Amino acid sequence: MMPNPSSEPVLPSLDDPVVRTGSEVAGGPAGKRIRFAPNSSWWNATRVLILLACLTFALGLVQKKPCYDGAWFGESSQYTRGCYSDMPHLYQGRGFADGAVPYFDGTGDPGMPYLEYPVITGGVMYFAGVLAREFGTDLNDEKLWFVMINALIMMACAVVVVVAVARTSGRRPWDAAMVAAAPVLALNGIINWDLVAVAITAVAMMAWARRNVVLAGVLIGLATAAKLYPVLLLGPLFLLCLRSGRLADFAKAAGAAAAAWFAVNLPVMIGAWTGWKLFYTFSQDRGADFGSMWLIFQQRSGAMDIETLNSWVSGLLLVMAAGIAALALCARRRPRFAQLAFLIVAAFLFTNKVYSPQYVLWLLPLVVLARPRWRDVLIWQACEVVYFFGVWMYIESYATEGSKGLSQNAYHVVILIHLLGILYITALVVRDILMPEHDPVRRDGSDDPSGGVFDNAPDVFTLIPGQRAELRYERDYYPDNPYVSDADGESAASAAGTIHK
After folding, report:
1. Which of 22, 90, 106, 306 is most buried (most C-beta within 10 Å)?
2. Is pLDDT larger for residue 37 or for residue 282?
Protein backbone atom coordinates (compact mmCIF):
# COMPACT_ATOMS: atom_id res chain seq x y z
CA MET A 1 0.00 0.00 0.00
CA MET A 2 1.12 3.54 -0.70
CA PRO A 3 0.85 5.73 2.40
CA ASN A 4 -0.04 9.37 2.16
CA PRO A 5 3.09 11.53 2.12
CA SER A 6 1.83 13.50 5.11
CA SER A 7 -1.08 13.69 7.51
CA GLU A 8 -1.06 17.48 7.42
CA PRO A 9 -4.01 19.18 5.68
CA VAL A 10 -3.61 20.57 2.19
CA LEU A 11 -3.71 24.35 2.37
CA PRO A 12 -5.76 26.03 -0.38
CA SER A 13 -3.37 28.98 -0.64
CA LEU A 14 -0.61 26.56 -1.65
CA ASP A 15 -2.72 24.18 -3.70
CA ASP A 16 -5.32 26.23 -5.59
CA PRO A 17 -4.26 29.00 -8.02
CA VAL A 18 -7.40 31.06 -7.41
CA VAL A 19 -7.03 30.94 -3.63
CA ARG A 20 -3.30 31.61 -3.92
CA THR A 21 -3.98 34.78 -5.89
CA GLY A 22 -6.80 35.86 -3.59
CA SER A 23 -4.67 35.28 -0.49
CA GLU A 24 -2.50 38.26 -1.41
CA VAL A 25 -5.05 40.55 0.20
CA ALA A 26 -4.54 38.72 3.52
CA GLY A 27 -0.78 38.38 3.57
CA GLY A 28 -0.17 35.85 0.82
CA PRO A 29 0.05 32.06 0.74
CA ALA A 30 1.03 30.04 3.80
CA GLY A 31 4.76 29.92 4.39
CA LYS A 32 7.00 26.86 4.43
CA ARG A 33 7.35 27.00 8.21
CA ILE A 34 3.65 27.07 9.00
CA ARG A 35 2.79 24.94 12.02
CA PHE A 36 -0.35 22.82 12.25
CA ALA A 37 -1.97 22.90 15.67
CA PRO A 38 -5.59 21.80 15.20
CA ASN A 39 -6.38 21.84 18.93
CA SER A 40 -4.85 25.22 19.70
CA SER A 41 -7.89 27.23 18.62
CA TRP A 42 -11.62 26.82 18.91
CA TRP A 43 -11.91 27.95 15.28
CA ASN A 44 -10.88 24.77 13.55
CA ALA A 45 -11.75 23.98 9.92
CA THR A 46 -15.04 22.25 10.73
CA ARG A 47 -16.41 25.14 12.79
CA VAL A 48 -15.35 27.72 10.22
CA LEU A 49 -17.04 25.72 7.46
CA ILE A 50 -20.24 25.36 9.50
CA LEU A 51 -20.36 29.10 10.07
CA LEU A 52 -19.72 29.77 6.38
CA ALA A 53 -22.52 27.39 5.38
CA CYS A 54 -24.96 29.06 7.77
CA LEU A 55 -24.04 32.52 6.47
CA THR A 56 -24.49 31.40 2.86
CA PHE A 57 -27.84 29.83 3.62
CA ALA A 58 -28.93 32.93 5.54
CA LEU A 59 -28.08 35.08 2.51
CA GLY A 60 -30.33 32.79 0.50
CA LEU A 61 -33.17 33.41 2.93
CA VAL A 62 -32.60 37.16 2.56
CA GLN A 63 -32.71 36.75 -1.22
CA LYS A 64 -36.17 35.17 -0.82
CA LYS A 65 -37.43 38.06 1.36
CA PRO A 66 -39.51 39.73 -1.41
CA CYS A 67 -41.77 36.69 -1.38
CA TYR A 68 -42.44 36.71 2.36
CA ASP A 69 -44.90 39.61 2.04
CA GLY A 70 -47.26 37.99 -0.42
CA ALA A 71 -45.50 37.28 -3.72
CA TRP A 72 -45.78 33.56 -3.05
CA PHE A 73 -49.53 33.84 -2.85
CA GLY A 74 -50.37 34.74 -6.42
CA GLU A 75 -48.14 37.63 -7.52
CA SER A 76 -45.83 37.26 -10.51
CA SER A 77 -42.95 38.94 -8.64
CA GLN A 78 -42.02 35.53 -7.23
CA TYR A 79 -40.56 34.91 -10.69
CA THR A 80 -39.19 38.35 -11.55
CA ARG A 81 -37.40 38.53 -8.17
CA GLY A 82 -36.20 34.95 -8.27
CA CYS A 83 -37.73 34.04 -4.91
CA TYR A 84 -40.04 31.23 -5.98
CA SER A 85 -40.34 28.14 -3.78
CA ASP A 86 -42.49 25.02 -4.06
CA MET A 87 -42.97 24.95 -0.31
CA PRO A 88 -45.79 27.46 0.27
CA HIS A 89 -47.69 26.21 -2.77
CA LEU A 90 -47.49 22.55 -1.79
CA TYR A 91 -48.54 23.28 1.78
CA GLN A 92 -52.06 23.85 0.55
CA GLY A 93 -51.89 22.04 -2.79
CA ARG A 94 -50.92 18.70 -1.23
CA GLY A 95 -53.33 18.82 1.69
CA PHE A 96 -50.92 19.66 4.54
CA ALA A 97 -53.04 22.69 5.45
CA ASP A 98 -55.93 20.28 6.11
CA GLY A 99 -53.84 17.78 8.04
CA ALA A 100 -53.74 15.19 5.25
CA VAL A 101 -51.40 12.25 5.86
CA PRO A 102 -49.16 11.76 2.81
CA TYR A 103 -49.97 8.74 0.62
CA PHE A 104 -52.89 7.67 2.84
CA ASP A 105 -55.03 10.78 2.29
CA GLY A 106 -55.76 12.44 -1.01
CA THR A 107 -54.67 15.99 -1.82
CA GLY A 108 -57.99 17.17 -3.26
CA ASP A 109 -56.19 18.06 -6.50
CA PRO A 110 -57.50 15.97 -9.43
CA GLY A 111 -54.25 16.57 -11.32
CA MET A 112 -52.14 15.21 -8.44
CA PRO A 113 -54.39 13.10 -6.20
CA TYR A 114 -51.60 12.04 -3.83
CA LEU A 115 -48.22 13.40 -2.76
CA GLU A 116 -45.69 12.78 -5.56
CA TYR A 117 -42.56 12.55 -3.38
CA PRO A 118 -40.68 9.57 -1.87
CA VAL A 119 -41.56 8.59 1.69
CA ILE A 120 -38.73 10.21 3.66
CA THR A 121 -39.27 13.53 1.91
CA GLY A 122 -43.01 13.14 2.51
CA GLY A 123 -42.32 12.55 6.19
CA VAL A 124 -40.29 15.76 6.46
CA MET A 125 -43.07 17.69 4.72
CA TYR A 126 -45.72 16.23 7.02
CA PHE A 127 -43.68 17.04 10.15
CA ALA A 128 -43.23 20.65 9.05
CA GLY A 129 -46.94 20.86 8.22
CA VAL A 130 -47.95 19.74 11.72
CA LEU A 131 -45.78 22.48 13.26
CA ALA A 132 -47.04 25.10 10.79
CA ARG A 133 -50.66 24.42 11.70
CA GLU A 134 -49.72 24.66 15.36
CA PHE A 135 -48.00 28.05 15.09
CA GLY A 136 -49.91 29.75 12.26
CA THR A 137 -52.89 32.04 12.78
CA ASP A 138 -54.36 31.87 9.27
CA LEU A 139 -53.61 30.11 6.01
CA ASN A 140 -51.02 32.57 4.72
CA ASP A 141 -49.34 32.68 8.12
CA GLU A 142 -49.25 28.89 8.19
CA LYS A 143 -47.63 28.87 4.74
CA LEU A 144 -44.90 31.21 5.96
CA TRP A 145 -44.35 29.07 9.04
CA PHE A 146 -44.19 26.01 6.81
CA VAL A 147 -41.45 27.63 4.72
CA MET A 148 -39.45 28.82 7.74
CA ILE A 149 -39.61 25.45 9.52
CA ASN A 150 -38.50 23.70 6.37
CA ALA A 151 -35.79 26.32 5.88
CA LEU A 152 -34.32 25.43 9.28
CA ILE A 153 -34.37 21.76 8.33
CA MET A 154 -32.71 22.51 5.00
CA MET A 155 -30.07 24.65 6.71
CA ALA A 156 -29.29 21.74 9.04
CA CYS A 157 -29.02 19.48 5.98
CA ALA A 158 -26.65 21.96 4.31
CA VAL A 159 -24.41 21.92 7.38
CA VAL A 160 -24.41 18.12 7.32
CA VAL A 161 -23.39 18.16 3.65
CA VAL A 162 -20.50 20.54 4.30
CA VAL A 163 -19.18 18.59 7.29
CA ALA A 164 -19.52 15.28 5.43
CA VAL A 165 -17.63 16.64 2.40
CA ALA A 166 -14.87 17.97 4.67
CA ARG A 167 -14.50 14.58 6.33
CA THR A 168 -14.64 12.67 3.05
CA SER A 169 -11.88 14.77 1.49
CA GLY A 170 -9.02 13.24 3.44
CA ARG A 171 -6.26 15.81 3.73
CA ARG A 172 -8.37 18.43 1.93
CA PRO A 173 -11.06 19.54 4.42
CA TRP A 174 -10.99 23.12 3.12
CA ASP A 175 -12.36 21.93 -0.23
CA ALA A 176 -15.73 21.86 1.55
CA ALA A 177 -15.62 25.68 1.53
CA MET A 178 -16.63 25.42 -2.12
CA VAL A 179 -19.86 23.84 -0.92
CA ALA A 180 -20.32 26.09 2.10
CA ALA A 181 -19.93 29.31 0.07
CA ALA A 182 -21.72 28.11 -3.07
CA PRO A 183 -24.07 30.65 -4.69
CA VAL A 184 -26.28 27.75 -5.83
CA LEU A 185 -26.72 26.70 -2.20
CA ALA A 186 -28.05 30.15 -1.33
CA LEU A 187 -30.32 30.42 -4.36
CA ASN A 188 -31.75 26.89 -4.40
CA GLY A 189 -31.69 25.80 -0.77
CA ILE A 190 -35.41 26.24 -0.06
CA ILE A 191 -36.96 25.76 -3.49
CA ASN A 192 -37.72 22.17 -2.59
CA TRP A 193 -36.64 19.39 -0.19
CA ASP A 194 -33.69 18.04 -2.21
CA LEU A 195 -31.16 18.85 0.51
CA VAL A 196 -32.58 16.01 2.62
CA ALA A 197 -31.41 13.42 0.08
CA VAL A 198 -28.19 15.32 -0.62
CA ALA A 199 -27.30 15.31 3.08
CA ILE A 200 -27.96 11.59 3.55
CA THR A 201 -25.97 10.82 0.39
CA ALA A 202 -23.03 12.93 1.57
CA VAL A 203 -22.97 11.08 4.89
CA ALA A 204 -23.17 7.76 3.01
CA MET A 205 -20.05 8.73 1.03
CA MET A 206 -18.32 9.71 4.28
CA ALA A 207 -19.19 6.33 5.78
CA TRP A 208 -17.80 4.55 2.72
CA ALA A 209 -14.62 6.63 2.91
CA ARG A 210 -14.24 5.42 6.50
CA ARG A 211 -14.65 1.80 5.34
CA ASN A 212 -18.00 1.29 7.03
CA VAL A 213 -19.57 -0.41 4.05
CA VAL A 214 -22.77 -1.57 5.76
CA LEU A 215 -23.56 1.87 7.16
CA ALA A 216 -22.82 3.40 3.77
CA GLY A 217 -25.28 0.99 2.19
CA VAL A 218 -27.98 1.74 4.77
CA LEU A 219 -27.59 5.46 4.13
CA ILE A 220 -27.72 5.02 0.34
CA GLY A 221 -30.97 3.13 0.82
CA LEU A 222 -32.40 5.86 3.04
CA ALA A 223 -31.25 8.57 0.61
CA THR A 224 -33.00 6.71 -2.21
CA ALA A 225 -36.14 6.77 -0.08
CA ALA A 226 -35.84 10.57 -0.08
CA LYS A 227 -34.94 11.04 -3.77
CA LEU A 228 -34.30 8.51 -6.50
CA TYR A 229 -30.84 9.59 -7.70
CA PRO A 230 -28.69 8.23 -4.78
CA VAL A 231 -29.27 4.66 -5.98
CA LEU A 232 -27.04 5.55 -8.94
CA LEU A 233 -24.02 5.51 -6.61
CA LEU A 234 -24.25 1.72 -6.42
CA GLY A 235 -23.06 1.59 -10.03
CA PRO A 236 -19.67 3.24 -9.39
CA LEU A 237 -19.26 1.20 -6.22
CA PHE A 238 -19.80 -2.02 -8.17
CA LEU A 239 -17.30 -1.05 -10.87
CA LEU A 240 -14.61 -0.01 -8.41
CA CYS A 241 -15.17 -3.04 -6.19
CA LEU A 242 -14.93 -5.24 -9.29
CA ARG A 243 -11.67 -3.63 -10.33
CA SER A 244 -10.16 -3.83 -6.85
CA GLY A 245 -11.46 -7.29 -6.02
CA ARG A 246 -13.86 -6.09 -3.30
CA LEU A 247 -17.14 -7.53 -4.55
CA ALA A 248 -17.96 -8.90 -1.10
CA ASP A 249 -17.96 -5.34 0.22
CA PHE A 250 -20.23 -4.26 -2.59
CA ALA A 251 -22.63 -7.09 -1.80
CA LYS A 252 -22.80 -5.94 1.82
CA ALA A 253 -23.45 -2.33 0.83
CA ALA A 254 -26.05 -3.20 -1.82
CA GLY A 255 -27.83 -5.58 0.53
CA ALA A 256 -27.89 -3.00 3.30
CA ALA A 257 -29.20 -0.38 0.87
CA ALA A 258 -32.04 -2.64 -0.27
CA ALA A 259 -32.94 -3.56 3.31
CA ALA A 260 -33.01 0.09 4.44
CA TRP A 261 -35.09 1.17 1.45
CA PHE A 262 -37.65 -1.58 2.03
CA ALA A 263 -37.74 -0.92 5.77
CA VAL A 264 -39.00 2.63 5.31
CA ASN A 265 -41.12 2.01 2.19
CA LEU A 266 -42.81 -1.27 2.98
CA PRO A 267 -45.27 0.03 5.63
CA VAL A 268 -46.49 2.70 3.19
CA MET A 269 -46.55 0.28 0.28
CA ILE A 270 -48.77 -2.07 2.28
CA GLY A 271 -51.05 0.58 3.74
CA ALA A 272 -51.29 3.06 0.86
CA TRP A 273 -50.15 1.43 -2.37
CA THR A 274 -51.96 3.84 -4.69
CA GLY A 275 -50.51 6.90 -2.98
CA TRP A 276 -47.04 5.38 -2.62
CA LYS A 277 -46.60 4.41 -6.26
CA LEU A 278 -47.56 7.84 -7.64
CA PHE A 279 -43.98 9.12 -7.38
CA TYR A 280 -42.75 6.35 -9.66
CA THR A 281 -45.62 6.42 -12.15
CA PHE A 282 -45.55 10.22 -12.29
CA SER A 283 -41.86 10.22 -13.18
CA GLN A 284 -42.50 7.68 -15.90
CA ASP A 285 -45.54 9.43 -17.38
CA ARG A 286 -44.35 13.04 -17.42
CA GLY A 287 -43.27 14.60 -20.69
CA ALA A 288 -40.36 16.85 -21.59
CA ASP A 289 -40.22 19.66 -19.07
CA PHE A 290 -38.25 22.70 -17.94
CA GLY A 291 -34.47 22.67 -18.26
CA SER A 292 -34.07 19.56 -20.40
CA MET A 293 -32.64 19.23 -23.88
CA TRP A 294 -35.77 17.26 -24.74
CA LEU A 295 -37.85 20.40 -24.21
CA ILE A 296 -35.75 22.17 -26.84
CA PHE A 297 -36.29 19.31 -29.30
CA GLN A 298 -40.00 19.23 -28.58
CA GLN A 299 -40.56 22.96 -28.90
CA ARG A 300 -38.56 23.15 -32.12
CA SER A 301 -39.64 19.99 -33.90
CA GLY A 302 -43.01 19.04 -32.42
CA ALA A 303 -44.29 16.92 -29.56
CA MET A 304 -42.81 13.49 -28.91
CA ASP A 305 -45.04 10.77 -27.46
CA ILE A 306 -44.17 9.51 -23.98
CA GLU A 307 -43.10 6.03 -25.08
CA THR A 308 -40.67 7.41 -27.66
CA LEU A 309 -39.34 10.01 -25.26
CA ASN A 310 -38.79 7.44 -22.51
CA SER A 311 -36.98 5.20 -24.98
CA TRP A 312 -34.63 7.99 -26.02
CA VAL A 313 -33.98 9.02 -22.41
CA SER A 314 -33.31 5.46 -21.26
CA GLY A 315 -31.22 4.62 -24.31
CA LEU A 316 -28.98 7.69 -24.02
CA LEU A 317 -28.52 7.15 -20.29
CA LEU A 318 -27.55 3.52 -20.89
CA VAL A 319 -25.01 4.57 -23.51
CA MET A 320 -23.47 7.08 -21.11
CA ALA A 321 -23.47 4.54 -18.27
CA ALA A 322 -21.70 2.06 -20.54
CA GLY A 323 -19.09 4.71 -21.34
CA ILE A 324 -18.55 5.37 -17.64
CA ALA A 325 -18.18 1.63 -17.02
CA ALA A 326 -15.60 1.36 -19.80
CA LEU A 327 -13.73 4.32 -18.37
CA ALA A 328 -13.75 2.76 -14.90
CA LEU A 329 -12.43 -0.59 -16.11
CA CYS A 330 -9.98 0.59 -18.79
CA ALA A 331 -8.30 3.68 -17.32
CA ARG A 332 -4.62 3.06 -16.58
CA ARG A 333 -5.21 4.17 -13.00
CA ARG A 334 -8.41 3.28 -11.19
CA PRO A 335 -10.75 6.32 -11.05
CA ARG A 336 -11.69 7.79 -7.72
CA PHE A 337 -15.13 7.01 -6.29
CA ALA A 338 -16.18 10.67 -6.29
CA GLN A 339 -15.24 11.01 -9.95
CA LEU A 340 -17.44 8.13 -11.06
CA ALA A 341 -20.25 9.19 -8.70
CA PHE A 342 -20.25 12.64 -10.28
CA LEU A 343 -20.20 11.23 -13.81
CA ILE A 344 -23.21 8.95 -13.35
CA VAL A 345 -25.33 11.59 -11.60
CA ALA A 346 -24.33 14.17 -14.23
CA ALA A 347 -25.32 11.71 -16.98
CA PHE A 348 -28.68 11.18 -15.29
CA LEU A 349 -29.34 14.93 -15.10
CA PHE A 350 -28.09 15.56 -18.62
CA THR A 351 -30.49 13.00 -20.08
CA ASN A 352 -33.42 13.54 -17.71
CA LYS A 353 -36.81 14.80 -18.93
CA VAL A 354 -36.76 17.69 -16.48
CA TYR A 355 -34.12 19.81 -14.76
CA SER A 356 -35.51 21.78 -11.85
CA PRO A 357 -33.15 24.50 -10.55
CA GLN A 358 -32.64 22.76 -7.20
CA TYR A 359 -31.24 19.66 -8.91
CA VAL A 360 -27.91 21.48 -8.99
CA LEU A 361 -27.65 20.61 -5.29
CA TRP A 362 -27.35 16.93 -6.22
CA LEU A 363 -24.13 17.72 -8.06
CA LEU A 364 -22.63 20.30 -5.70
CA PRO A 365 -20.82 17.98 -3.24
CA LEU A 366 -19.92 15.56 -6.04
CA VAL A 367 -18.34 18.31 -8.16
CA VAL A 368 -16.27 19.50 -5.21
CA LEU A 369 -15.07 15.98 -4.39
CA ALA A 370 -14.43 15.09 -8.03
CA ARG A 371 -12.80 18.31 -9.26
CA PRO A 372 -11.79 20.50 -6.27
CA ARG A 373 -10.68 23.63 -8.10
CA TRP A 374 -12.28 26.98 -7.32
CA ARG A 375 -12.00 28.21 -10.92
CA ASP A 376 -13.84 25.23 -12.37
CA VAL A 377 -16.48 25.08 -9.63
CA LEU A 378 -17.21 28.79 -10.06
CA ILE A 379 -17.45 28.54 -13.86
CA TRP A 380 -19.93 25.69 -13.51
CA GLN A 381 -21.94 27.57 -10.88
CA ALA A 382 -22.02 30.70 -13.04
CA CYS A 383 -23.79 28.63 -15.70
CA GLU A 384 -26.26 27.37 -13.08
CA VAL A 385 -26.93 30.88 -11.75
CA VAL A 386 -27.77 31.98 -15.31
CA TYR A 387 -30.20 29.08 -15.53
CA PHE A 388 -31.71 29.87 -12.11
CA PHE A 389 -32.78 33.37 -13.13
CA GLY A 390 -33.52 32.38 -16.72
CA VAL A 391 -36.09 29.73 -15.88
CA TRP A 392 -38.09 32.09 -13.65
CA MET A 393 -38.08 34.80 -16.31
CA TYR A 394 -39.26 32.25 -18.87
CA ILE A 395 -42.11 31.13 -16.63
CA GLU A 396 -42.97 34.78 -16.06
CA SER A 397 -43.22 35.31 -19.82
CA TYR A 398 -46.29 33.08 -20.17
CA ALA A 399 -47.65 33.20 -16.61
CA THR A 400 -48.34 36.93 -16.80
CA GLU A 401 -50.07 38.71 -19.67
CA GLY A 402 -47.91 41.40 -21.23
CA SER A 403 -44.77 40.16 -19.43
CA LYS A 404 -41.29 41.06 -20.65
CA GLY A 405 -39.78 37.78 -19.53
CA LEU A 406 -37.57 35.51 -21.62
CA SER A 407 -38.74 34.35 -25.01
CA GLN A 408 -38.70 30.68 -25.92
CA ASN A 409 -35.52 31.08 -28.00
CA ALA A 410 -33.76 32.91 -25.18
CA TYR A 411 -34.77 30.20 -22.75
CA HIS A 412 -33.29 27.58 -25.05
CA VAL A 413 -29.98 29.46 -24.87
CA VAL A 414 -30.23 29.42 -21.07
CA ILE A 415 -30.79 25.65 -21.10
CA LEU A 416 -27.77 25.19 -23.35
CA ILE A 417 -25.63 27.27 -20.98
CA HIS A 418 -26.66 25.03 -18.10
CA LEU A 419 -25.91 21.88 -20.13
CA LEU A 420 -22.54 23.24 -21.23
CA GLY A 421 -21.68 23.89 -17.58
CA ILE A 422 -22.25 20.21 -16.78
CA LEU A 423 -20.28 19.15 -19.86
CA TYR A 424 -17.40 21.43 -18.84
CA ILE A 425 -16.94 19.76 -15.46
CA THR A 426 -17.56 16.34 -17.01
CA ALA A 427 -14.78 16.87 -19.56
CA LEU A 428 -12.35 17.89 -16.82
CA VAL A 429 -13.20 14.87 -14.67
CA VAL A 430 -12.80 12.50 -17.63
CA ARG A 431 -9.45 14.10 -18.43
CA ASP A 432 -8.35 13.69 -14.81
CA ILE A 433 -9.23 10.00 -14.98
CA LEU A 434 -7.40 9.43 -18.26
CA MET A 435 -4.46 11.64 -17.24
CA PRO A 436 -4.26 11.51 -13.44
CA GLU A 437 -1.40 14.00 -13.42
CA HIS A 438 -4.12 16.64 -13.82
CA ASP A 439 -6.15 15.41 -10.82
CA PRO A 440 -5.84 17.93 -7.95
CA VAL A 441 -6.49 15.23 -5.34
CA ARG A 442 -3.71 12.94 -6.52
CA ARG A 443 -1.03 15.57 -6.88
CA ASP A 444 0.07 15.08 -3.24
CA GLY A 445 0.50 11.31 -3.54
CA SER A 446 -2.99 10.42 -2.32
CA ASP A 447 -4.93 7.70 -4.13
CA ASP A 448 -8.65 7.94 -3.33
CA PRO A 449 -9.60 9.57 -0.01
CA SER A 450 -13.29 8.85 -0.64
CA GLY A 451 -12.60 5.30 -1.84
CA GLY A 452 -12.70 3.52 1.49
CA VAL A 453 -11.82 -0.14 1.01
CA PHE A 454 -10.23 0.43 -2.40
CA ASP A 455 -8.13 3.44 -1.41
CA ASN A 456 -4.54 2.42 -2.32
CA ALA A 457 -5.72 -1.11 -3.15
CA PRO A 458 -4.10 -2.91 -6.11
CA ASP A 459 -6.16 -3.78 -9.17
CA VAL A 460 -7.26 -7.37 -9.74
CA PHE A 461 -9.44 -6.84 -12.82
CA THR A 462 -9.38 -4.53 -15.82
CA LEU A 463 -10.55 -4.79 -19.41
CA ILE A 464 -7.03 -4.14 -20.72
CA PRO A 465 -5.00 -7.38 -20.81
CA GLY A 466 -1.86 -7.23 -18.71
CA GLN A 467 -2.76 -3.89 -17.15
CA ARG A 468 -1.77 -3.42 -13.51
CA ALA A 469 -2.50 -0.81 -10.89
CA GLU A 470 -0.65 2.37 -11.69
CA LEU A 471 0.36 4.27 -8.58
CA ARG A 472 3.03 6.43 -10.11
CA TYR A 473 4.87 8.80 -7.89
CA GLU A 474 3.25 12.20 -8.25
CA ARG A 475 6.57 14.06 -8.02
CA ASP A 476 7.18 12.90 -11.59
CA TYR A 477 4.04 14.84 -12.54
CA TYR A 478 4.50 17.78 -10.20
CA PRO A 479 8.18 18.49 -9.54
CA ASP A 480 7.25 21.78 -7.83
CA ASN A 481 4.52 20.31 -5.65
CA PRO A 482 5.03 21.70 -2.10
CA TYR A 483 3.30 18.68 -0.57
CA VAL A 484 5.72 15.99 -1.78
CA SER A 485 9.33 15.90 -0.62
CA ASP A 486 12.22 13.80 -1.89
CA ALA A 487 11.91 11.54 1.12
CA ASP A 488 8.24 11.07 0.38
CA GLY A 489 9.13 10.21 -3.17
CA GLU A 490 11.34 7.36 -2.12
CA SER A 491 8.66 5.83 0.09
CA ALA A 492 5.94 6.33 -2.51
CA ALA A 493 8.01 4.90 -5.32
CA SER A 494 8.92 1.92 -3.18
CA ALA A 495 5.27 1.25 -2.34
CA ALA A 496 4.27 1.61 -5.98
CA GLY A 497 7.00 -0.83 -6.95
CA THR A 498 5.63 -3.32 -4.47
CA ILE A 499 2.21 -3.15 -6.12
CA HIS A 500 3.65 -3.51 -9.61
CA LYS A 501 5.37 -6.78 -8.74
Report:
1. 90
2. 282
